[in-house]
From TrEMBL:
UniProt name for this protein: Uncharacterized protein
InterPro entries: CAT-like_dom_sf, Plant_Fungal_Acyltransferase
Similarity annotation: Belongs to the plant acyltransferase family.
Organism per entry: Tetracentron sinense
GO MF annotations in UniProt: acyltransferase activity, transferring groups other than amino-acyl groups
PANTHER family in alphabetical order: HXXXD-TYPE ACYL-TRANSFERASE FAMILY PROTEIN (PTHR31642:SF160), TRICHOTHECENE 3-O-ACETYLTRANSFERASE (PTHR31642)
Length: 448
């Protein structure tokens, strides 16, 4: 039976450092892409069945020993983010101070967690974010012998692509395998041009602001509900087929976004005539040079804007075409070079996507984890996870946030994290197509 009446007791906390550290501390400057992140916390939650060998103490021992080894390749992750003495802007002090690893016990079976209403369950398992420690891990043992790993890291340290590369390297070390993709820490390759310049399209997407403005942005919707959904593979395929009816094949994310956008339009107030949709776009594949293994941030934001009435009247394929055009406008090297220059022109102020502040009307941001390593690759030698998802501990956000990832089943189904408001939850769950299904332990292969 699903329960929210449980407690988590922390039993130990320790700092894990790189095993082979011989250099003096050094400073790693953040790139202009890193500065766009806004220092927000990012959390990942992975759940694993009871290991076939060993117990929880063995799990912790393997996690810590392999972490010591892999940190030799990811020294910035064991450092601290500090303000520059002259500019006040953040930079990474690579001093091997270590990653905090917290050990905990939960008096509940993993299958009894409420995986749907994450505010009632995962919030008790997550690692509180502290700016002083850019990366923390909590290893939680459950009554049934299962365990979970929850990481919280500072977005200035890495984006999702970089952090998943770290997790894959870590799991390879834990399984006594060589690291398949060696990290590239050259954040300095993202330099502004000698005469910084950028086009007007960036000013449409980004906003030059202060931290105080970000923290005090008026929030019109109660974007506080944190839900986890399951989307069947057949529904994913059906959306893509319908979005491609005009003869141009659309991606699964474009089709999914079109569906979400149309549902969003049914929830807005009469005074909100426009609906926004944003997409996180990775620049690694769009910029020249070999940077697939780049550690840090290389993310921009694509934004589309359509009237609520047009969204209601348009077909799924028509809305998917709008999504495609918006993403294509950003998915090129010229855009990312302009973005580097935009941030440079506004130093030391912040440059932040307007949609995240709720500027322009109600909206959603889709940040897909579908191109990242599969959930099953994050295996530390005790079997693959039954669930891998992101989570947000942020208290304020001006827009909804959706993160679809392949489920651990590997059959084309998705697990979708949603940070949304009540009206959108009601619309998604009452939609006749039933694409968004509240996730249960059964979807994860767990037995109550």
């Amino acid at each position: 039976m699903v329960s929210t009446d449980f407690s988590v007791q922390i039993t130990k906390s320790s700092a894990v450092k790189a095993a082979h550290w011989s250099s003096e501390p050094y400073i790693l400057s953040l790139s202009n892409f890193d500065l766009i992140s806004g220092r927000c916390p990012v959390t990942l939650f992975y759940a694993y069945l009871k290991p076939h060998r060993g117990d929880f103490s063995m799990v912790v021992a393997v996690i810590k020993s392999s972490l010591e080894e892999v940190l030799g390749h990811y020294l910035p992750f064991a450092g601290r983010i500090i303000p520059n003495a002259e500019t006040g802007q953040p930079e990474i002090l690579c001093n091997n101070e270590g990653i905090e690893v917290i050990e905990a016990n939960a008096n509940i079976d993993l299958a009894c967690l409420d995986f749907y209403d994450l505010s009632q369950s995962l919030q008790k398992n997550l690692v509180p974010f502290q700016h002083e420690i850019p990366l923390r891990l909590q290893v939680t043992n459950y009554s049934c012998g299962s365990f979970s790993l929850s990481w919280t890291f500072d977005h200035a340290l890495a984006d999702a692509t970089a952090f998943y590369l770290f997790l894959r390297s870590w799991s390879e070390v834990a399984n006594n395998k060589p690291i398949s993709k060696h990290p590239d820490h050259r954040r300095s390759i993202f330099q502004p041009r000698s005469t910084p310049t950028y086009g007007p399209s960036l000013e449409r997407i980004f906003y030059n602001c202060t931290l105080e403005e970000v923290l005090n942005t008026p929030i019109t919707n109660d974007i506080s509900l944190k839900r986890l959904y399951y989307i069947e593979a057949a529904d994913v395929e059906s959306l893509q087929e319908r979005a491609s009816l005009d003869g141009r094949k659309r991606t699964k994310i474009e089709a999914f976004s079109a569906y979400l956008w149309k549902v969003l339009a049914t929830t807005v107030k009469e005074s909100d005539t426009q609906c926004m949709m944003g997409w996180a776009v990775d620049g690694r594949r769009r910029m020249s040079g070999r940077m697939s293994n780049l550690i840090g941030n290389a993310i921009s934001m694509a934004v589309g804007e359509v009237s609520a009435e047009d969204l209601k009247q348009s077909s799924l394929s028509q809305v998917a075409s709008v999504a495609h055009e918006a993403i294509s406008e950003v998915a090129n090297e010229a855009h990312f070079l302009d973005l580097i220059d935009l941030v440079e022109c506004h130093r030391p102020g912040l440059v932040f996507p307007k949609i995240l502040l709720g500027i322009g009307g109600p909206g959603m941001v889709v940040s897909s984890g579908r191109e990242l390593p599969t959930t099953t690759e994050i295996d530390f030698g005790f079997g693959p996870p039954v669930l891998g998802t992101c989570y947000s501990t942020m208290a304020r956000l001006g827009t909804g946030y959706i993160n679809p990832q392949p489920s651990a089943k590997g059959d084309g189904s998705w697990v979708v994290f949603a940070l949304v408001w009540p009206e959108l939850v009601a619309a998604l769950e009452s939609d006749p197509e039933h694409v968004f299904k509240p996730i249960t332990a059964t979807h994860l292969g767990l037995t109550l």
